[in-house]
Amino acid sequence: MSGHQDGRPGTRWRRATRLLAAAAAMCTGSVVLTAALTTGPAAAGAAERAALAAPAVTSVTTGGAHTCAIPTDGGLWCWGSNYGGQLGDGTTTNRSTPARVGTATWASVDGGSGHTCAIRTDGTLWCWGSNFRGQLGDGSTTSRSAPVQVGTATTWARVSAGPAHTCAIRTDGTLWCWGFNRTSQLGVGTSPYVATTPLQVGTATTWASVSTGFAHTCAIRTDGTLWCWGLSSDGQLGLGTLGSQTTPAQVGTATTWSGVAAGYAHTCGVRSGALWCWGENGYGQLGVGGTYQTTPVQVGTGTTWSRVDASSDTSCASRTDGSLWCWGKNGSGQVGDGTTTHRSAPTRVGTETTWTGGLAVTDHGCGIRTGGGLWCWGDNSGGQLGDGTTVQRPTPAQVNLPG
Prior knowledge:
Blueprint: H1 9-23, E1 26-27, H2 41-53, E2 57-62, E3 66-71, E4 77-80, E5 94-100, E6 106-111, E7 115-120, E8 125-129, E9 144-149, E10 156-161, E11 165-170, E12 175-180, E13 194-200, E14 207-212, E15 216-221, E16 226-232, E17 243-250, E18 257-262, E19 266-271, E20 274-279, E21 293-298, E22 305-311, E23 314-319, E24 324-328, E25 343-348, E26 359-361, E27 364-368, E28 374-378, E29 393-399
Parallel strand pairs: 1-5
Antiparallel strand pairs: 2-3, 3-4, 4-5, 6-7, 7-8, 8-9, 10-11, 11-12, 12-13, 14-15, 15-16, 16-17, 18-19, 19-20, 20-21, 22-23, 23-24, 24-25, 26-27, 27-28, 28-29
């Protein structure tokens, strides 16, 4: 896989995730699809009416083989693979349609490979799912099938869940990480090997956003500078070297970074509207030709990129004109262009210019269009597309949360 031997830890992790997702039992629920996924005018009409009645979505995240979304009423819905309890519904049963997570109101959510973390509207942080490396932050390594609170703080603002570690930012601008630290991805040095509760990363109080990759982490400060740490096996830290970085190190000298997304072994970011990527490029996930890059390389010449997401070996980004573009690994149709051909340059997803909301991609992708419509595509082995099936889809199809 893109130059990696099967014995590499990342390959073993991704293979295990797929096997667990496929082995878990599927549970059938109710969901309404758009007319494109139904047959006959009666079914099409019913689907259109349901789409109009469905609540608008404000936030979406894609985990290893699961999806979670928050509609305008603040409820939280998850679906897909649930072997570790990552759906938060109190079971380990897969769901091929959205299932409500409790009755609380939520502000944001992020999914890791087998766990999920979310912030409630009261500023408290909650995590659930697999916890073998302490990634839930509750002081244990016990997996949880329902949300458990992380500490007692009520000032959490942002959270990012990686495969086996989690990082979050508080309203005071401090950054905290916990979970697996084998490659110093927590940013606190080489010790501890596993942290089961949040550890503060340095003393800075100017962190604005954070993104967790497989074994590295990147974050942006309020002054627009970009910092990365952890493993740099393929240059994914953007520091011009291979190896590891035990604490945050600044990427270049630019002060205009507005977004960053850490993938499996690559990273992409937006700077002054231009798109930059670096790290592993075996599937073309950097959006440029050639091999791995140890420093940021610009993707094309456009300066109208607004947001980017990267995970596994695929990248997606939207432009200010509302168009959506994806590239990289496409074995499950996660590029969304109707094929399973890997792409080494940004490939447009359809012709719509309404991709103005949230965006997330792993081996499947999901995005929010104008008006709050939620669309998903790609791998569906665990039911993560939310359409009631386990059939992968190489183009976006709408998924409606229960009204």
